[in-house]
Amino acid sequence: xxxxxxxxxxxxxxxxxxxxxxxxxxxxxxxxxxxxxxxxxxxxxxxxxxxxxxxxxxxxxxxxxxxxxxxxxxxxxxxxxxxxxxxxxxxxxxxxxxxxxxxxxxxxxxxxxxxxxxxxxxxxxxxxxxxxxxxxxxxxxxxxxxxxxxxxxxxxxxxxxxxxxxxxxxxxxxxxxxxxxxxxxxxxxxxxxxxxxxxxxxxxxxxxxxxxxxxxxxxxxxxxxxxxxxxxxxxxxxxxxxxxxxxxxxxxxxxxxxxxxxxxxxxxxxxxxxxxxxxxxxxxxxxxxxxxxxxxxxxxxxxxxxxxxxxxxxxxxxxxxxxxxxxxxxxxxxxxxxxxxxxxxxxxxxxxxxxxxxxxxxxxxxxxxxxxxxxxx
Length: 377
What we know:
- By secondary structure, the chain is an all-alpha fold.
- It has one domain.
- The protein has helices at 2-37, 45-54, 60-76, 79-90, 95-102, 116-140, 146-153, 156-166, 174-200, 213-239, 247-262, 265-272, 283-310, 313-320, 323-334, 341-376.
- α2 packs across α11 (247-262), α2 (45-54) packs across α13 and α13 packs across α14.
- The chain is globular, with a radius of gyration of 23 Å.
- It starts with a helix and ends with a helix.
- This is EamA domain-containing protein.
- It holds the Pfam family SLC35F.
- Keywords: Membrane, Transmembrane, Transmembrane helix, Transport.
- Belongs to the SLC35F solute transporter family.
């Protein structure tokens, strides 16, 4: 029993270490994006997000090899056995699977694993929302600081709560309402501070020159949080629990569908002049873009998933809040930006609201697990 307990503790702390790596990767990726769009003068957020999201399709490579291995075993077996195994492999796309997905999984058990067909349908349904959430967040880094973008992006949890309450997948209470109110005050203070700093600076951005650039970045960051809130809420409506879906398969097809569906937008943006297409002209640009794609997106999301499985979704959500102070510290040391008192108070209020919501959610999860145990007894 002590060995099992020790193994469980090692697994938990392994998840914490993975989470720490994710936090560092995400903050580092944000600074890389900020430098890429600003200091390196390569302001192509759509193209960079497109390349980042495309790396998700690499999740399909192990699955492809696994399916090829299964097919090889089928070919080497007898005709009867081969037919049986073939039916097992294609089972996810049989008529029963299609019928189940057509009913939005309402007839399935809450713990029923989604088939490959249902997972692919989910990837197709949510890939655009996923891309928009990442695109607006990345684009915000072209106009505002990493600290402001990170603070406002953390509002995604509160938008998830609000949208979830509308669709009745989240419960509202006084603590959560107060947390939302406090966070909104914090966001207002941060945005107002950015607005004042934008007025003091010369705005050389080509778009919306009548609006201070930091305020444009803040709006984009909030839009990213809203898209993320929509994405996570709708995903929760469709699958309920994380253990019902193969996340690697899901992410893989999200990347594949984004590659296939969104490439026409690149020449369109070039034509209308919103984002001219330009291949990176120097090796340094290529290195930054590719490292950010594979480390800041592909590897970090894999470690995030691993950390969630080794700890819990709530622990991971609380841990991600560490990106806010790290981003602020990075702005101070690497960018020389000293936050004002108003800005600092706003940041503290956002963090307080974020932690209050997730702590309350953690208590609700504990109460629910205790109720489930009492029902089993």
